[in-house]
Amino acid sequence: MLLVALGIFILQKPEMDRRARERAEEAPLVEESGPARAEENGDEFSEEPGPVSSLKPYSDEGGKLGNGGESIIGKSQPGPEFESRPPEETYVIENDLIRVRFTTYGGAVKEVELKKYPALQGEDAPYIFNEGSDLPVLGISLAETDGSFEEYAPAYQLLSGGAGSRKIEFIREQVPGIDLVRSYEVSELTEGAAPYIVKHSTRIINQTPTIFAVNHIFLNVGTAPPTDSDRQGYFLNFSYYDGEDYEYISGNKFKGGGFGGFFKRDPVSEIQRSGKTVWAAAKNQFFTSIVTPAAETPGIGIFAQPATLPPKTPRGAPVLGITGGIEFDLQNVNAHSERSLDLDLYVGPKEYSRLISLDQKQEYVMQLGFFGFIGKFLLWMLLALHNMVGNYGIAIILMTVIIRLTLWPLTAKAAQSSKKMQKIQEPLKELKEKYKDQPEKIQKETLKLFQQHKINPAAGCLPILVQMPIFFGLFQMLRSASELRFAGFLWIQDLSLSDTIATVGGFPVNPLPLVMGVTMYYQMKMTPMSMDSAQQKIFKLMPLFFLFICYTFSSGLVLYWTISNCFSILQQYLTNRRKDVEETPKVSLPAGQAVPAVRKKKKLKKPPKK
Length: 610
Hints:
single chain, 610 residues, alpha+beta, 2 domains, nine-stranded antiparallel β-sheet, 26% strand
């Protein structure tokens, strides 16, 4: 178990180092506006108000999209005032799994309802992605000369589609002869990623005899809110894929601070990165929006920033989510021609079977880690078992049993090796006393002792090394699988959360980690220890150490560990009860001399009773 803990640290250390380097290298790209600033409170991505977004609300005074040949992005141009926009209108298209609501302000997606996934456990209201965000998904933003962004959201008119249709189109006349048409379509298919995809096209139609310059624009990917089960914001991030590497920007990148006085950095309002962008995503623990441009028009960069969302309760604090966009260079639209920007928008659950069908490595958003291939196999096994038994808690137990039965020969060898090692502790102690000034002699005699008793010192380490990748793969998989959201088992209401049954003085009471700690204590108590008394005392504290670490873990993971401990207890019990086979020592005789035959003693007959 100690090796497992050290393994967690080792696996996370490269990521910690990478983040530290980025902290040292990143400088504020843009000064913050407004009174709210991120406080220097370390890496924790809390729900306290953060930096005010530098993405300004729409106003035509800031410029237009193109000007008929000369780029005006970032230049002040005359135009209608913000107040001159007509009232906002919303329209809906839907299929069996999603309901997409559009706004005429920007002709973009206001929010997406996921019909299969309730927002709250026990209620029918669906989960709404991008709810409460001021920025519509696929809304257009323009870059200002100072590096900030301005939302370009003039009023569009409905061109076609809407209620009762799976298609919708909006149109806006930029200037006479220049039309901007934005069209959307949802699929009627239900398999793979198709039902969660909104196909989009933005067309710039130039009917004038002059060139119309568009140059750089940004399309918003969406705004992801945090989830209750990911309080550290590990899965709340903006991520992107450049065709070779997958990168993500977590919320703590925008906060100031440092670690122990090192890597000090100032808060930033947004982060920009340039380069080929195959797709980009805004996501939390269970849901994501992914924008995948067509292959002929890939993105040339991204920006990400925190987003302040409305409080969850009337008196609660604002919720800090994350948002961002993809940059495109549309260049010029020649006279009497048009330019099109086509893409797919996926808004839905982080289900591996759906994401992998997108064919551009979009499954990376699940963040399955270094042992992702193991996590994928375990997820497949978990879903298959769930289809058989209908409960994810039982499926986790069965999966644990299958894993432990598969590893039984290895773990049995380890248990037997521990038992043998305990039996030779006295001879080992005598060797160390006898040859205390001869370390080479101690090593040689110890090896001879191992050979005599047929002990393999590595037998106890091999099972742990084999189980570590399985544990890490399962650890990541159970934290990111949307299937476990709101999945109940016994007293557990949600396997993706800790199994809190009460709160005493602000401290949560979680029974399952306590059960896990007890099983670990008995497992260690039954395991023969071949170490000195000081090491044994430290080793016996391990249950408390792991109880502290796992107390707030998802109950699905703690359930796996508890059942695994019970399996180890059973195996150690059977090993301890098993009698050792005493081997008859072989007697070496001179060559040619036969082993003397052993004569059987004749039984004396007892005299008959008188």
